[in-house]
Design brief:
By secondary structure, the protein is low in regular secondary structure. It has one domain (1-31). It has one helix and no strands. The longest helix has 4 residues, at 8-11. The termini are far apart.
Length: 38
Amino acid sequence: MAHQWRGVIAEYADRLPASITGTVVTLREGGTPLIPAE
């Protein structure tokens, strides 16, 4: 099964210095593919 992207904050919460309590609001940010500039 493919991994469902949860957003930057939820995805990396275990690596952030602050603990997250409550509901994390996300716009599904991050995960944008990089396209080479011409």
